[in-house]
Structure formats: C-alpha cells, structure tokens
Write a structure and sequence with these properties.
Layout (H helix, E strand, L loop, with lengths): L2 H29 L1 H4 L6 H17 L6 H14 L6 E3 L1 H10 L3 E4 L2 E6 L2 E7 L4 H4 L7 E5 L2 E2 L5 H8 L6 E7 L7 E6 L1 E4 L3 E7 L2 E6 L6 H15 L7 E5 L8 H9 L7 E6 L5 E6 L2 H4 L20 E5 L6 H11 L4 E4 L7 E7 L5 E10 L15 E2 L7 E2 L21 E2 L11 H19 L7 H11 L1 H7 L10 H10 L1
Helix pairs in contact: 1-3, 9-11
Amino acid sequence: MSKPVFKKIALYTLGAISGVAASLAVQGFAAEKDKRDNEVLPVQSIRTMAEVYGQIKANYYQDKPDADLFEGAMKGMVADLDPHSEYMDKKGYAEMKESTSGEFGGLGMEIGQEDGFVKVIAPIEDTPAERAGVKSGDFIVKIDNVSTRGMTVSEAVKKMRGKPGTKITLTLSRKNADKPVVVNLTRAIIKVKSVRHHLLEPDYGYIRVSQFQERTVEGVNSAAKELVKENKGKPLKGLVLDLRDDPGGLLTGAVGVSAAFLPSEAVVVSTKGRDGKDGMVLKAVPEDYVYGMSGDPLAGIPAELKTIPMTVLVNSGSASASEIVAGALQDHKRAVIVGTQSFGKGSVQTLIPLSNGSAVKLTTALYYTPNDRSIQAQGIVPDVEVKDKERTFESREADLIGHIGNPLGGEDVNSETLAVPVEENADKPAAKEKGKKKKDEDLSSRRIPNPAKDEQLRKALDLVKSPEQWQKSLGLAAKKPVSNKDKKDKKDKK
C-alpha cells in the first residue's frame, strides 16, 4: 500500500474515531461539566491507534476485516480495566443472558481470569464439571488441546459450550498437584436447580443456594414452606443456609434471599461508584428484589424465618451475590457466619447493551454491607472459622491480576493452601477405587447433607441448636476494616 493511501486510511480512521469520542465526550461534559471543563480529548492516543490500524492494513500478512480489528481493539480496551470487565459480541451477550435464566448448554462452572489463563471460581452443583472433579481454584490451561493463555472469559465460554452430548477435554493446573489434571466431560443442558432443602433433624432445616437466578427467591420461599410441612406442620427452631461454592448471580436474587430473613426495610447492600459517590441503597422490600413484573416471591413465607437462630455456610467459592447475603445477615446480627473466608468479589458489573447487538460489561461501583464494609478483595470473614478437611486449596479475588483493591484500606486476602494429609499408597488401585467412592460420597453429601460427614455443617447445626452459644457468636467478625488514613494516624501517634 502506498503512503498516500496509508495517510488517507489514517486520517479517515482518525476522523471516525474522533467523531465517536467527541459525541461521548459531549455526554460526559453535560453530566459533570464542573469537573471536566478543562479536559481535552486524547488526540495523540487516538492518532496512534489510527496509525496502528493503518500499519496492520498496509503490512500484515493477511487482510483482516475491519470488523475483526475493531472488535479486538474493543476487547483489549475493556479487558485491561479489571478481571471482571469485558466486551461481549452478539453471541457472548446472548449466552450471558441465557446463563441467568436457569437453563443452558455447557459444563457448569463459574470462571474468571488470572495470570493470562482461565480460572475456575466454582463448579456449579450437579453438573458435568462438578461430577468430573473440577475444583475451585483450578486453572484451565487447555481446552481440547488449545492453550487458554491470553484467552478472554467469553472466548473460553464459547469453546466450552456446545451441542449437548458432545465431548470436550480440559487440562487443568491444580495447586500442589505434581502433574496436569486431564478431565473428559460430556456437554449437557445445564438445568440449574438453584435451591435445595433438607430437614436435618426434627425442627432444624437446611437450605442450599447454589446460584442466584431469576427464580431463586421463589425457590427459597418454597423450600421454607416444604421444610415446615416435613416438620409435621410445626415451625422450625433453627435453619442453616448453605452458600458454599455459590459463585453469585443476580443482585435481585441476593436482595430477595436476604429479605427472607431480615425485617422489612432493613438495608441489604449499597453501592458507591466513581470517586466514592453514593449509588443505590437496596433494602428488604419487594420493589428492590422482584424480578420482572411478577408479584412478591416471598409472599406467605413462614414468619419464624425472621427470628429463629440461623447460620450461613461460606467458603472461598462463595462470591458476589452470596457474599452480599452473608454480609447483610452478619451486619444485622441475624445469622452466624460459619466456614472459611469468602472469595472477595465486591464489585458491581453493569451490562450495557450496545447498538450493534453486542454489550460491554463494566465495573461501575463497589458493594458495601449495611455497616459500610467493603467486600472487595477481602470477602466475608466467618464469625466461626471451620476448615474443610477435604479442600486442599482456597483461591480468592485478590489472586486475580489487575483486581481492584479494597477502598477502605483493608489488606488483600489471597489464596491459601490447606493442610490436608496425603493418603499413603494413594497411587495404588485399591486406594484409587476408595478415592473414587469417597468423591461420589462427597458429591451426594451436598445434595443430601450429612452433619456426621461434614464438619462445617455439623458446627453450623450445633450453633442453631444452642441459642446461647449462637447469640455469643453473632457478629464476632463483622468489623469495619481500618482505612489507610486511620492507619497513618495511629502510626503517627506512636
């Protein structure tokens, strides 16, 4: 391509990009004119972008379509912001909307990105991923022998989803494993039953929420009513809410589940956006949790759920919406939090549809608990810590490259390796068969909870059965992190 042609391309591109930028800038100026009067468009950066585009069109060994180039630029622009912001093409956007409806095709796991690879936040219960032994904290290093290095979350999702019944192979890197873990899975229609329940013993119920979806709040209400029926119509005396390995989901679901146990009008969560500006405050009222145009999904919920002793189980796989619920119940001293520190995803992602059918998911604010604590990069600290002896590794938000730090100055909480004794002769056939049997038992224990085999659950049940001990344990860990300013003041006074 000749220089005059290159100049024409560069100038044309500059003009097009400048036009878009100018229109966006006008909107921004109108919104915050007092702060932006002196700002100017990044003309030099736009010019450099145009030059890069021109060089690609002139010299790259393949003729890449303009649409692909600009889509790649948009993906890169957004992906560099933080681990949870991303640009989605039309297909990716459609899949995102599909995943919150409760039924989709794929493997069944929540994923993020760390160190250039795709990372498992939590497998979803009763899915191909969970049954194959995929664990929280695993790195997916290959998908069908294709390296995931540099792959976006959306790109990984596209590769892992497909026609039900088709097979896929994942190569996993697991903490403390001496070699890669290879798992073969069969894609399936993922019908996520987000709420399960079980009467642990007379008068004491168990509700498991595996993901926050459109019908989760209604599901919690139904589960509570069924528990009363199973309890021969008598009110429950205590309840365990299990949010372990719940990767989150819809904000309305988190507010509604919290509202099931809190007084009306109680604050559940608030948000703060750019420069610490106050955003929305969501309370335990129908208008803040009703999804769509339906009626109150908590109508007729057993009244005792507002007052009986309850515990909430969390671990490092409890993220986002599940942390909002745990934080709200902890701050209002409504429940004792049991388990290990949660994931620490306290950021708000807004899904913004674009004119061409694509969308951009942007981190627009941070969540704050009712006591104005930030979950970000710290998570929820349990009031009563109980380690999971079957869990070898805890991975958290603070491990993700480019993560947002805690705005209140609290220290990041990173991954941790749990001390788990290695079984002797683990590589022998008999030991392997025993291990497989134990894995199957572990999977079923989450669906039919058994306090005799689940130390965390046993502790949670013991607490609700002992009102005095439960009362003493309320709010033990709900302390607001010390801000950087406070730390400095204390240091200066020494």
